[in-house]
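Action item from last week, closing it out:
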Amino acid sequence: MNSRNPALLVSVGAAVAVAAIVGLSAAGAAGSDGSTPFAIAAPTKAAPIPFIGAPNYRAIVAANRAAVVGITTESKARDESDDNDEDDQGQSQGQGNGNGRANPFGDNPLFRFFGQMPQMPRQNQAPEHALGSGFIVSPNGVILTNAHVVDGASEVTVTLMDHREYKAKVLGKDKATDVAVIKIDAKDLPTVHMTASSTVQVGDYVLAIGAPYGLEETATAGIVSAKGRSLPNDRSVPFIQTDVAVNPGNSGGPLFDGYGNVVGINSQIYSNTGGFQGVAFAIPIEVATHVQEQILKTGKVEHALLGVGIQSVDASLARSFHLDTPAGALVAKVDDDSAAARAGIKAGDVILEYNGAKLVDEGQLSAAVAMAEPGDKADLKVWRDGKTLDLTAKLGAVSSRAELVKTAAATGGGKLGLGVRPLTADESSQSGIASGLLVERVQGAAARAGIQPGDVVLAVDGTAVTNVNQLRAMVEKHDTSVALLIQRGDSRIFVPVQLG
């Protein structure tokens, strides 16, 4: 027996054991009175999974390569101080994306845009050049690509498969979803065919065409690894995760399903090297076409706003809020005079459904709201104080990317151990917090939960606390866990703390 094949060992061992048990049932299971004291069911054989065959990648590439374009941009060299422009809306921190523009993933350099080639050293403020991809969606020259490919560009050049070059006009771009619409002055161009990303599932074949490192018309293939991914600081897009090899220059290129339909726009990779490491992300095509329609109609994009700060519900928080399962979006903060406030949503509510669709995590809520339009009505099923409520919100409008629905990160918990005191009048006035308990000392599991000196405890399981005795009494009512609403700087998050 080959000891280097543990799967074979397990399989053979299991077969022998089953045979022995079946033999016992057949030969020695009957009692002295002829009865059968027990019976062992014969093993059932699982139905084989049918093999449907691989896609015809050759045909997909042949039918679509002419509709995939290369994009070269030129932008004026900028001083480092330019990266703090208000137009970046708080995205100026973190890893650069290769063209002098900042990474919107903040201080997480593992999530990278891959539309640009590495930036060349500046000499006498020479113009900067970057590369990307795109695809034609209209015979009259309308092209979809990533917003970060053309962001800040003073000149955009599109190269077709037959090497014709056109200067492109940026009709509009949306940083929130990273989608841009550009146009070239041409007619009778080949186009791609698009279909909803819901038609592909995890495990399905997908193919990308683009220009990695400037290598035009490069095709790579893989499978859908996951769907509905929410990335750091980018909760408005339910990304498609794939293992399709994509690299700098692929940004903005199409992701095809096994039938040759575009289901997404390749946008980002997870990498600690800057190159492909097996994890790539694409924007669902219905998100892109939603943006495209608005840009072509009005020249701009408007996103709806609910006006809440939300976070995931883990097992600890689910126990604290007496939920059967850890699902939904936990509301940590409600903005004043927002759609959520007017609808009666409160901090501590768990939003379980949005327009009849169950929410597995907070990312689904963020994506649903981002896809809606200002003025749309949202029917919400909310969990509060051990029961469900039905609320309706009339969504507001986002005036900047910073106002998009954001998610605070939940942290683990342990046994409560805090030294707190009420806020002074000056502290309350300076912080804008009406009442709460300032954390002065942290020990035990409260520290392990991530609570820090300087945090302000606002509520326990959604109920506001104003003094130390109230906090102590509320915590004593819990046997297993408690959820504390913490204010830290400008952010509010619920922190689950395990008791005992």
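Closing note: The domain at 418-498 is CATH 2.30.42.10 (Pdz3 Domain).
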